[in-house]
Amino acid sequence: MRMRSTLCLASALLACTALSATAAPRVASVTVGPQVGSATYGTSTSITYLVTVTRGGFGNFTVTMSMNPPLPAGLTASFSPNPFLFPIASPPLETTLTITTTSASPASLTGFTVQAQTGGATSTDLATNTGTLTVSKAPLTVTADDRSKTYGGADPALTQTPSGTLYNGDTFAVITGVSLSTATGAAATAGTHPITASGGTADNYEVTHVAGTLTVSKAAALTATADDQAKTYGDADPVLTYATSGTLYYGDSFAVITGVSLSAATGAAATAGTHTITASGGSADNYDVTHVAGTLTVSKAAALTATADDQAKTYGDADPVLTYATSGTLYYGDTFAVITGVSLSAATGAAATAGTHTITAAGGTAANYFVVTANGTLTVGVATLTVTANSTTKSFGTTLVFGGTEFTTLGLKYTDAVTTASLMSAGSVSGAGVAPYPITLAAAIGSGLDNYTIGYVDGVLTVTATPATASVVVSPNPLQYSDLVTFTGLITGGVAGGQNAAGTLRVYIGTQELGTITLAPSGTTLTGMLTVALLEPTPFGTAPTGQLAPGARTVSAVIDDPNPNFALTAPAPSTLIVTAEDARAAYSGSMFATTADQSSSTATVTLRATIQDITAAGGDAGPGDIRNARVTFVNRDNNTVIASNLTPVLVNAGDVETGIATYNWNVNVGANNSQSYTVGV
Predict the structure, then answer these.
(1) Cα–Cα distance list, 414 to 318, 385, 447, 543 (Å)
(2) C-alpha dihedral (106, 110, 116, 120), degrees to nearest 10
(3) CA-CA distance, 240 to 222, in Å (whole number)?
(4) 407 has which bridge partners?
(5) Whole-number Å distance between alpha carbons of 111 and 91
(6) CA 85 to CA 62: how far, in whole Å?
(7) Beta-ladder partners of 468
(8) DSSP 662
(9) How distant, in Å, are the alpha carbons of 587, 610, 614, 632 from that of 681?
(10) Burial of 228 (0-12, 13-18, 19+ CB in 10 A)
């Protein structure tokens, strides 16, 4: 169709009012965009839509937006911008539709119509289009309650529990049509089964179904009991079996039990004693299975024998190590080391006396065998014992009495003892002379001696000389030459064994022998006396001379013929003080003398004195030889010795008691005409 148009030139802000014979609609179309945002029952919210208006005619015009028809109660709508101006040659314009819901807005799909109109409320220059408002249902949940039962028990009643947020005074009664289902009867096998909830609906709410769980416990346990078995160690292992018991349901049989495993010690591990037959692994679909163990009783095998080995020793030696030998039949590669605890005992130490003793074997055990024991024999030989007499000494003249214990032993064991023995010796009597004598012994008596071969060894009895001490006592002391002196001789201990140590003692002064003392027993002492005058040997001049001169003189004695059975100690030297014998001296020499001539001043004067033993003068009973006297002439005027050590000469050879001593004295009178001298003797 051809149309005429009139060009209207005007300001962009002014409406063009030019008319044409035929005018196109100015609002060509309205487009409603998708819902932006969500709305849920029970909540207030705003939903927006982008609405696009497309122009159809030329010119400037104003478009007013509205809902036509209006929205249901509880819903409000607004456009922004609204109204709005369509400039000349404007592209499509957009406005935002906002629909606001309240908590009471029902959950449903609400269609609405949007109208774009220009030219007033009665204008027909408009365009419409529809949109959709979606208000979601609020969520509620129906949960099937969990239930439980035991296999074979009654099926439980099924229930449900609703949950969620209710609005506008609603209750859970709005939910209807819920269906609950699960396995029942024999189908409710042990384990878990879903309790299915379904079919529930509610106005304004979306119902979600949550399954529950039916938990079916296994029925009371069935029991698999291992049967007891028995065998002997080393025999074949028995076949293991088991028995069943318990309550079954729904026509089940004990065949529901499967997988039962039976185990017990076998072979070498099946040692004597009891072993558990373990039942395990059994299961049943709907039943617990309890396993009860059985017992495998294994008897010990035929006896092994432990025999004590025979042993030997000598009495007193170390006890032998006791051992034993084994015999019998073994199994499974066992060795006789399986035997333990064998106790071996026999007499030991002092109790292991010479002879035979039982070695007792006892107490042996073996884990899988009976054990019998057999005794052995301990043979104990006699030991060697040496008894040796103690060597000893005794003095001649004493008697040795053996007490029976004078011995030593070699080879005694333990607390054995030799208490006495018979000892003898020829040297034991008092009269046995100085010499060695054998001591023999025999017939030992003591404890435990039956366990020995006894050898006897002689000792030696040595008889020694009996000590004896000789002495000489001089009396009187001091005394004068020529007087009588008594020598008393003693040998203390000089009598023993019926013998004397000596018979005589020879007495000496210096080297001069004065005589012999004859000794005689007096108890155990020998004694004797010798009385002699202290005189020089005769005749005069017989050697030795001068031994009895006045002074300290040594007295000694010699033992004649000493008895070898005595250990004699010679007399110790003693000292005799000899004083000079009393004598009478009379001067009998010249009283006057002259020189040879007047010119000489010297003269020789013969001095002479008559010396007489006091016996001769009637004053002493013990005479001596006057020649043993010594004469000294002394000048009394000046107490000088004129001559000394002069030996008298006998006046008469038959009279030894009177003598004369003479000395020729050379005198010098010097210038004196004469000189007197006092001469002493």
Answers:
(1) 11, 13, 11, 78
(2) -60
(3) 19
(4) 389
(5) 28
(6) 4
(7) 568
(8) E
(9) 7, 10, 16, 6
(10) middle
Q: How many CB atoms lie within 10 A of CB 428?
A: 19
One-letter identity of residue 222:
L
Give residue-wise pLDDT tens across range 222-267.
999 999 999 999 999 999 999 999 999 999 999 999 999 999 999 9
pLDDT at 6 over 90: no
Token pair belonging to 403:
């007490």
Exposed, middle or buried by CB within 10 Å (0-12, 13-18, 19+), for 450? exposed
Residue that the structure tokens 């269906």 belong to: 179
Cα separation, 509 vs 477, whole angstroms: 13
CB atoms within 10 A of CB 141: 18
Cα 113 to Cα 91: distance, rounded to the nearest angstrom: 23
Tokens 């103690």 found at:
390
Beta-carbon neighbour count of residue 496 at 10 Å? Answer: 22
* Residue 599 to residues 220, 606, 674, Cα–Cα distance (Å): 191, 21, 13
- The Cα 386–Cα 462 span in angstroms is 22
Q: Are 52 and 31 in contact (CB under 8 A)?
A: yes
Decide if 432 contacts 426 (C-beta within 8 A).
yes
Contact 488, 351 (CB under 8 A): no
91 cis-preceded (ω within 30 degrees of 0): no
Q: Is 477 exposed, middle or buried, given 0-12, 13-18 or 19+ CB atoms closer than 10 A? A: middle
d(CA 611, CA 626): 7
Question: Which of 610, 619, 612 has its CA nearest to residue 656?
Answer: 612
DSSP state of 36: B
Residues 324-346, buried b or exposed e (16+ Cβ, 10 A)? bebebebbeebebebbeebebeb
Residue with tokens 């001769």: 616
Q: What strands lie across the sheet with 147-150, from one edge to the other?
A: 147-150, 212-217, 191-198, 179-181
Alpha helices in 143-199 (DSSP H): none
Round the average pLDDT of the chain to a whole number and report it.
90
Q: Which phi and psi (to 5°) does residue 255 adopt?
A: -70, -10
Tokens representing residue 317 in the block: 């030696």
- pLDDT, one tens digit per residue, over 488-516 is 999 999 999 999 999 999 999 999 999 99
Distance CA 341, CA 330 (A): 18
SS3 helix, strand, coil % of the chain, rounded to 5? 5, 55, 45
Rounded Cα distance between 99 and 49, Å, is 8
Do the bridges between strand 138-144 and strand 504-509 make them parallel or antiparallel, or are there none, so unpaired? unpaired
Strand partners, 321: none
CA distance 96 to 52: 9
Give the global pTM: 0.47
